Amino acid sequence: MELFFANGVLIDQNTGTGNAHKCISINDRALQYGDGVFETLRIVNGDIPMWGYHQQRLKNAQNILGLPLNNFFSQWNEFIATNLSRVESGCAKLIISRGEGPRGYKIPQPAQLNWWLSITELPDIATKEKFRLTLCRHTLSRQPTLAGLKHLNRLDQVMARSEWSEQDNIEEGIMFNLDGDVIEGTMSNIFWLKGDQLFTPDLSQEGVDGCVRRWVIAQQGHSSPVIIEKCAKLDQLLTADAVFLTNSLIGIQKVTEIDSQVITQSTKIETLATEFNRQFIHG
Amino acid sequence: MELFFANGVLIDQNTGTGNAHKCISINDRALQYGDGVFETLRIVNGDIPMWGYHQQRLKNAQNILGLPLNNFFSQWNEFIATNLSRVESGCAKLIISRGEGPRGYKIPQPAQLNWWLSITELPDIATKEKFRLTLCRHTLSRQPTLAGLKHLNRLDQVMARSEWSEQDNIEEGIMFNLDGDVIEGTMSNIFWLKGDQLFTPDLSQEGVDGCVRRWVIAQQGHSSPVIIEKCAKLDQLLTADAVFLTNSLIGIQKVTEIDSQVITQSTKIETLATEFNRQFIHG
């Protein structure tokens, strides 16, 4: 199963119907400057249960980057109801670009957004018994203004992800900031448990504020311990009672090794993961 | 005159011949992640006189980003000789992408680069008598590893360029780093003269190392005063004997106003501009 939509129109990849829409222009600002944002969505029974969290991040992009997303938002629910109802399970990548423009950084007024949705099979994300992290040498750019957004300027992640390959038995890499603080994985956020408190890095200077991350933070006092967002060095993770990663595809994934050191486990993480799955996957 | 080449093949925009090549894939990593670089080239009498400087920056990208550019370099001279010989004057934008890949940041092995060249009329770059700079509030991301490269992650420039519009009588904006140091213009490098010395910002932490900038630095002791690359605050520019900008289209452009304050002028800048034009424009 592979589906591709351009600005809401299904492009039939066999007959070529609508190929004109599949053709992305050299003048598109996503290609020229990375001028846009993306979201990785998990489809469950024809719906996107976490959409509220994705939409909140897109609204942040609307405010900070000035992307005019109101028309997009007003069409989205009907688009999903019409087109995804028969997709039982899948992974969708949504890219929203500022659209085409003439030469130069200046934003065309009015901008005419382009958006694309690619739907593919859910990758193999069964909870893994062994989940091993490496330490990335490539550090994150510091940019407080854009911190938290999932924009299309992602060379940092490309560089970090190139530091290990399949043979290394590594599932994810930890990225640090310029001060050597732990910030996130290349495609996930990170949490650690110490006593009765959960910690996650402060993302005010760099990093992507993930949807599952915000859900975990919103749980505090309910199914999750109190959460503290703070700067931390690697030793705090290595001496934690448990470490886990989050993203919209894996949900909550416990970490078993960091840089070949064994990480202790806690049943509190399983309780949180069960609650997440109940709300968003098997609800 | 508008010409467009995809991977070295001319795409006829009237007949549609070769349209398949003009169709940029949704899976292209330039679109997905900004995983690539670009160059803005000035064409003079069918040639690109500054190509050596552009090539040097591309070689830096080859080393730092791991872009496999050897095949591209080996084809380039013949491509130019075959296709640009009748272009008397123009502006070319070269984009080189890591190419298509499956979902995920991981770099496909081997990567199959895509490159596109768009040739348009030279914009109006006659040396302007009034050249006024504004001060951009949006600061540059800090990223020492990628500093100097002209990669496709350019949201900082998009944000900064959106701070003024045509009615403001502004020609360019000065961008600062997170410490408040002057770094560059949104599409140019910056120099200032004080006594017998020329200064330009240190670009080791952020910024784009322009071709004309490197030419100016290489002139020291010949037609240019001694150059110092350093961190500097705005007041050093406002109290300078002269300020000028550089890029491959405008060459060397004196600045007349910064944030509505008049900047003094020096004939030393004109001497340097004359030498630049002799070597690269009217040579």
Description:
2 copies of one chain form a homodimer. With 283 residues, the first copy, chain A, is of the alpha+beta class. The first copy, chain A, has 2 domains: 3-120, D-amino Acid Aminotransferase, Chain A, domain 1 (2-Layer Sandwich), CATH 3.30.470.10; 132-280, D-amino Acid Aminotransferase, subunit A, domain 2 (D-amino Acid Aminotransferase, Chain A, domain 2). The first copy, chain A, has 8 helices and 15 strands. In chain A, the strands form 3 sheets. In chain A, strands 2-1-5-4-3 form a 5-stranded antiparallel beta sheet. In chain A, a hairpin with a 2-residue loop joins strand 14 and strand 15 (261-262). The two termini of chain A are 24 Å apart. Chains A and B meet through helix 2, strand 4, strand 5 and helix 5 of A and helix 2, strand 4, strand 5 and helix 5 of B. Chains A, B: Its cofactor is pyridoxal 5'-phosphate.
